[in-house]
Amino acid sequence: MATCETCGNDFEQAFEVRMPDGSGHTFDSFECAISRLAPTCAHCRCRIIGHGVHTSEAVYCCAHCARSNADPLGSVLTDSAPATGAS
User: Fold this and answer.
1) What is the pLDDT of residues 31-81, one digit of tens each?
2) Which of 60, 61, 63, 71 is the most buried (most CB within 10 A)?
3) What's the predicted TM-score (pTM) here?
4) Distance in angstroms (rounded) separating the CA atoms of residues 22 and 16
């Protein structure tokens, strides 16, 4: 069994996440992995589980937060790409 580094639970089905630098983290649930590893929105402080919105200044959960945080690129960001060639 392995111990979750977030909650301390000793769990037989724990899993390990390997980072690009080769280090590993052990968790008993995706919830604990997200809590420990997911980036935090620079505006609302929520954990970013999806792609998020990256600017030269910060990472945001959505374009709304980038605009609300007065990010220099916030005014030109959108949350989705325009539809192209739908038939």
Assistant:
1) 999 999 999 999 999 999 998 888 888 899 988 898 887 777 666 776 666
2) 60
3) 0.72
4) 12
